[in-house]
Design the sequence.
């Protein structure tokens, strides 16, 4: 039997995880996610939203998110030390980052947007030796008087950051063309490196601003480069396919420049003919830069390290905290981190993070992730609801089996009697009426008792929802048990009735079929009593399909309990799943789906074991 169980698990568990992947992809394909409902909230800090996404892995691709969840479920296996970000420059404007990290120095700071929607910080150096300084860093350890500036040497082992000798990311262009009446056409454009951008100057475009195209007075052109070494913007003026004029202007990544002021470029004798202006950034390739990073504590003790950076290649710098301590730097009283470049250019800095101490290898209990809605572990969130659902379903299964077995035997031993017809009618009704509708009918019937006289023994005899009464915590142990039992009566009846009706019909049909077989005739001819024939010979053979149905009974009842829990306001997994699906709380949905799949596997496995027990013809081989 052990070999059979292991073989079944080896076959079904991969299928179970395949099912979870399909469910995961269906949820992901559906438009929107949990974070979309907050994206347009004006009072929500968008940096906080991006950090929130990063915390739950929602900033990564679908495959990465699923593998991250799967790794946690499979005993939370980890082979790398955990990283804690202390600086990430996720504020969407530079002023907020200046305030958050107290950025100073003679280098010009800029924000550098990333492809994934996040931001990094760029320091533009006008000349060799320029410096950018961070005088504040977030703190992952809340201990100490200066909590935001405390790095524990016991808890953390190293500090890391991403550095890049950055390329030109483009420029922001402002174009203004004025006529002799003071009316002006104006447009703003963002020009990326390698992607020319054009501005149309047709009659319709001028008409939008009321500009007389035949009486143009002058052109104003302003630009600011985004990062990198100083580049050049090439401006071409066209009339249809004809090239009228070309001009090149030097840019500056540290300030906004007036490239043209109140004039037209040479060669543009008839500016009114121009119907298109095109801007193209010509970058200067970044030269190798040696970046100097200095860590300074509150007593001005300094540790300095240098890293050689090739052009536009991100390098991860790692410094062991033991090196800082050896240089006399007190990491519990960190003061600032400064960055210098030995050549003019732009230094990109992103994701300053602390590496936790330890080997990094970790195997723990299965981790189902965290609920996005309440930021608590999924298991902590789900367990109270799962316990309630398990209690309800165990009682429903007991109710089903304890009633369906004797009723099925009685109907089969008294075929076509009035009692058999009555039980048959009840079975048909149990199968025909949906469980949620039956629940509503019972609720309506129970609410009628609330109109009785308070002296009536049936007045408010059964509650109409929930699991406990309002005064539950004021009751003693016995009263609490009775209170819970009264709340479970209606849900158990609703859940058990449909399954009981199906099992009664199956058992009755099998019992009648087996009662006409030759071995039953032989048993009666031997003079065995009816009880012996019915229970030892007929029932043991007739119960095989009855037991086989147990494999689907458990997941069927659990699946049906979701609607029943919602109707009765029962605090079970159905209520939790409804809330999780509506709010796109994906990890709660995944954990609940996995629990349902495991119950299906366990149910079918128990059914097979019971079948082999009741029918000696069935072998585990």
Sequence:
């Amino acid at each position: 039997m052990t070999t059979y169980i292991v073989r079944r698990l080896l076959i079904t568990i991969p299928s179970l995880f395949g099912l979870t992947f399909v469910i995961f992809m269906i949820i992901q394909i559906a438009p929107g996610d949990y974070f979309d409902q907050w994206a347009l909230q004006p009072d929500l800090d968008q940096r906080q939203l991006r950090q929130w996404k990063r915390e739950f892995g929602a900033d990564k691709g679908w495959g990465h998110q699923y593998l991250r969840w799967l790794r946690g479920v499979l005993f939370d296996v980890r082979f790398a030390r955990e990283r804690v970000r202390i600086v990430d420059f996720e504020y969407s404007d530079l002023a907020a980052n200046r305030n958050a990290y107290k950025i100073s120095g003679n280098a010009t700071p800029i924000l550098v947007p990333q492809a994934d929607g996040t931001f990094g910080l760029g320091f533009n150096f006008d000349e060799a030796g320029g410096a950018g300084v961070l005088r504040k860093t977030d703190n992952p350890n809340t201990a100490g008087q200066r909590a935001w500036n405390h790095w524990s040497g016991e808890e953390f082992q190293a500090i890391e950051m991403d550095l890049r000798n950055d390329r030109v990311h483009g420029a922001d262009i402002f174009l203004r063309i004025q006529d002799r009446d003071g009316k002006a056409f104006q447009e703003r454009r963002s020009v990326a490196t390698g992607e020319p951008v054009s501005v149309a100057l047709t009659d319709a475009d001028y008409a939008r601003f009321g500009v007389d195209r035949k009486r143009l007075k002058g052109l104003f052109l302003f630009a600011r480069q985004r990062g990198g070494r100083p580049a050049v913007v090439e401006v071409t003026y066209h009339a249809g396919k004809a090239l009228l004029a070309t001009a090149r202007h030097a840019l500056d990544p540290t300030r906004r420049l007036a490239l043209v002021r109140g004039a037209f470029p040479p060669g543009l004798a008839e500016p009114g003919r121009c119907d298109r202006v095109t801007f193209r950034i010509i970058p200067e390739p970044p030269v190798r830069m040696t970046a100097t990073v200095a860590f300074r504590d509150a007593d001005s003790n300094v540790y300095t390290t240098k890293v050689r950076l090739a052009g536009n290649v991100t390098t991860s710098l790692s410094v062991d905290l033991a090196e800082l301590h050896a240089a006399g730097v007190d990491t519990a009283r960190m003061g600032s981190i400064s960055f210098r470049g030995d050549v003019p250019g732009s230094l990109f800095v992103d994701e300053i993070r602390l590496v936790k101490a330890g080997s990094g290898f970790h195997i723990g209990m299965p981790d189902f992730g965290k609920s996005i809605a309440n930021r608590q572990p999924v298991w902590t969130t789900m367990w109270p609801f799962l316990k309630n659902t398990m209690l309800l379903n165990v009682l429903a299964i007991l109710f089903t089996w304890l009633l369906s077995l004797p009723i099925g035997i009685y109907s089969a031993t008294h075929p076509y009697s009035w009692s058999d017809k009555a039980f048959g009618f009840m079975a048909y009704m149990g199968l025909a009426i949906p469980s949620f509708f039956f629940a509503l009918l019972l609720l309506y019937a129970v609410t009628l008792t609330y109109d009785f006289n308070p002296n009536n023994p049936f007045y408010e005899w059964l509650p109409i929802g929930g699991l406990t009464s309002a005064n539950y915590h004021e009751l003693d142990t016995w009263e609490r048990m009775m209170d819970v039992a009264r709340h479970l009566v209606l849900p158990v009846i609703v859940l058990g009735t449909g399954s009981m009706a199906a099992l009664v019909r199956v058992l009755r049909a099998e019992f009648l079929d087996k009662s006409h077989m030759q071995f039953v005739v032989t048993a009666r001819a031997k003079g065995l009593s009816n009880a012996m024939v019915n229970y030892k010979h007929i029932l043991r053979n007739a119960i095989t399909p009855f037991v086989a149905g147990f494999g689907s009974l458990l997941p069927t009842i659990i699946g049906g309990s979701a609607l029943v829990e919602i109707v009765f306001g029962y605090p079970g997994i159905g209520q939790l799943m409804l809330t999780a699906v509506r709010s796109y709380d994906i990890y709660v949905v995944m954990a609940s789906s996995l629990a349902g799949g495991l119950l299906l596997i366990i149910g079918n496995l128990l059914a097979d074991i019971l079948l082999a027990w009741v029918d000696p013809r069935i072998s585990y081989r």
Q: What stands out?
A: The chain has 16 helices and 19 strands. The radius of gyration is 37 Å. The longest strand covers residues 345-356.
